[in-house]
Amino acid sequence: MTTPIPAAGTVPWRRRRGQLEVALVHRPKYDDWSWAKGKLDPDEEWPVAAVRETHEETALAVGLGRPLPGAEYTVLDGTGQPATKEVRYWAAEATSPAGPLENEIDEVRWLDVIAASDRLDYARDRDQLRALVRADKAGTLTTWPLALVRHAHAVGRGSWHEDDRLRPLDAAGQERAAVIAPVLTAYGIKRLVSSPSLRCTDTLRPFAAQLAVALRTKDGLSEEGYAAEPGRAVRHLERLVERGAPAALCSHGPVLPALLTALLALVAPDEPDADHVAAALRAAARDKMAKGEVLVAHLVGTGATARVVAVERHLPRS
Questions:
Q1: Is the domain 5-137 a CATH 3.90.79.10 member?
Q2: Which of 70, 143, 197, 264 lies most in the core, judged by the most C-beta atoms within 10 Å?
Q3: 144-314 has which CATH code?
């Protein structure tokens, strides 16, 4: 069985005079209307490709919101043979006006959802539109991301004879840290909180340097701080939920289950995807997340009204 061709895209949305609109693209080569999407570059992460392709095809700057249903369909590969194309989609609020078009797209058109449904050429594209409309009606289209990160692979404890808090990332961990940076960028992360242990701060440092944002360290997120006073780690998470700004928090395997359990408590049982979201958080807590994993929780509201409506797990490639 051949590996599916991976692709990623978005459904860009905005409100105009109180009405929800989405952006469709026209490809003159196929004379069709669809969503902005494209194939992943070699070793590119799905969310990074979604943002890149959206900007290349629409000249829109977007930040990824909640994931939408994907699509699989048959295309011809480079040799003319049939192959499966797998596309992952996200809702993406447009954060700036579009610039000039430069690639294979000759028109971008903002339409209300009824006109967009009529204009789309492929029935499969209406799956994403329906999901976006359902989220809008439920009040869960406008979300903000909270990313939990387990530090990337570090030098082994057995070969490190100094203070464990100074144990650095190994070569594979450094490579993963460089990959994590554009993933966090795709979700518009602006605030960084980390255990002060070097393996955690160095996991987020490439992103902090890229965006020139402060990297705040909290002793309560370290293994030592958690062992001494377990409740401090959850309080740091709760403060981020109260703030409601796109944020990433980096910690350790022994600490993360408590943080994930705190997020699980924010899953409202009446949400349409509650079972799926809860299962993802429970699995991540059971596994203590993989080293170098980024788990993105999409929340609506802040503080006491906050609730988790979607979860994504971005694991390092084996």
A1: yes
A2: 197
A3: 3.40.50.1240
